[in-house]
Amino acid sequence: MRKPKIVVLGAGYGGLMTVTRLQKALGQDEADIVLVNKNDYHYETTWLHEASAGTLHHDRVRYDIDSVINRSKVEFIRAEVQDIKTDEKKVILNTGEIDYDYLVFALGGESETFGIQGLKEYAFTISNVNAARQIREHIDYQFATYAMETEKKDERLAIVVGGAGFTGIEFLGELVNRVPELCREYDIDYSKVRIYCVEAAPMVLPGFDPELVQYAVALLEKKGVEFKIGTAIKEATPEGIKVAKGEEEMQEIKAGTVVWAAGVRGNAVIEKAGIDNMRGRVKVNLNLTAPGHDNIFVLGDSSLMINEEINRPYPPTAQIAMQQGEVCARNLVKLVKGGEGELETFKPDIKGTVCSLGDDDAIGVVFGKKVTGTKASFMKKMVDNRALLMIGGPSLVLKKGKFNLL
Ligand code: FAD
Ligand code: NAD
């Protein structure tokens, strides 16, 4: 009998959790497992703000996929996924095509620019290793150029962060530690640097615990961040951004660097494939399959699940993507082995949220308790190490883990 073929798209949190669980649970004679990813490495998306600010080298945030997969059980294809022909059970890659019996879609999300003019051209996004490297090098270049030019353009040193969600705040936490270092490297007076955070909602980290938000804002302000709250970015230009507060007139903020961290959407491949979606995200069935597609599982930032308690979608997080990977793998094993009964249903088990504020500070709610300062920072590093442990075991933690715990 022909073995079923499981194709997993994406070696992020959801994809790698699925593959590492499948390779343990299925024998070579039970299924063909194929993993497709555009790079031969996995990157810790949750650490990209550090690589972007330059507080952590980009090689620290990635590791070889080969170091966590068993090549005797998993075929790895390095390629870019372009489309899926669900009728023909085929995935179209930039290098050819591949057929499947079961498909796991875990290609992550994309930056959401809401059609705002100029963002794609003039703003950076913290979206992958190379994008992070580009942000770090761009900021470095602005400082180096400022140091060289005779007619100093102070706006060159201004950095705008669009969005005070978790990504924006974590990036600011790194920036306020990195920029003073850069100033020392280039003999620039720190008071010449402006770091703005522009947030459309009436508060920083909308929806998060107000006391913890106050802690974060006070710390970042003390280190030089200027918050512009209730102010929306309306346009990005070669000179900076245009913003508006309510009905007030549009204002310009001149800046040499603009980083857009104001939202994510699902993956465009889902839209192209014609699978029912809302901005690239599939409202999955409880067993994680796409409606109308019993053989396609959708995980991570490309999936959408409603938290019935508050009737709002769960925020897309690595925490959820990894938990989905485990359930998806168990469901695939059941399908392959022909186990009895229904597939397992997925319910997120949210253990907490910790937002770093640089290497040595953080805020968070963990198991319902508020934490701040070094204790929270310690917990954040533990969470980071746990992701490595879950996917690659203790050896990966030893190779890539964060041990500067306090
Ligand atoms: P990803 O982990 O993004 O992986 C997708 C993979 O697919 C990547 O390897 C990518 O290269 C590959 N890929 C994409 N498109 C293609 C294609 N067309 N062809 C081939 N391969 C492709 N969440 C938390 O829970 N805790 C945190 O502390 C946290 N911090 C964050 C910090 C930052 C700076 C950011 C940006 C996000 C953070 N998140 C955090 C959110 C979290 O990173 C995402 O929810 C998570 O990465 C989603 O996992 P995923 O498996 O869906 O996709
Ligand atoms: P987000 O959608 O959570 O936040 C984006 C912010 O940008 C919002 O506050 C929004 O009001 C603001 N915004 C939108 N349009 C704007 C505009 N035109 N001008 C100014 N502000 C605007 O996005 P994110 O912060 O990238 O987070 C994405 C996901 O990743 C979330 O689910 C988040 O929970 C997760 N994440 C988690 C952590 C963590 O747990 N430590 C860290 C980073 C990201």
Automatic annotation (TrEMBL):
<dbReference type="GO" id="GO:0019646">
    <property type="term" value="P:aerobic electron transport chain"/>
</dbReference>
<keyword id="KW-0285">Flavoprotein</keyword>
<protein>
    <submittedName>
        <fullName>FAD-dependent oxidoreductase</fullName>
    </submittedName>
</protein>
<dbReference type="InterPro" id="IPR036188">
    <property type="entry name" value="FAD/NAD-bd_sf"/>
</dbReference>
<dbReference type="GO" id="GO:0003955">
    <property type="term" value="F:NAD(P)H dehydrogenase (quinone) activity"/>
</dbReference>
<keyword id="KW-0274">FAD</keyword>
<comment type="similarity">
    <text>Belongs to the NADH dehydrogenase family.</text>
</comment>
<feature type="domain" description="FAD/NAD(P)-binding">
    <location>
        <begin position="5"/>
        <end position="325"/>
    </location>
</feature>
<keyword id="KW-0560">Oxidoreductase</keyword>
<dbReference type="InterPro" id="IPR051169">
    <property type="entry name" value="NADH-Q_oxidoreductase"/>
</dbReference>
<dbReference type="InterPro" id="IPR023753">
    <property type="entry name" value="FAD/NAD-binding_dom"/>
</dbReference>
<dbReference type="Pfam" id="PF07992">
    <property type="entry name" value="Pyr_redox_2"/>
</dbReference>
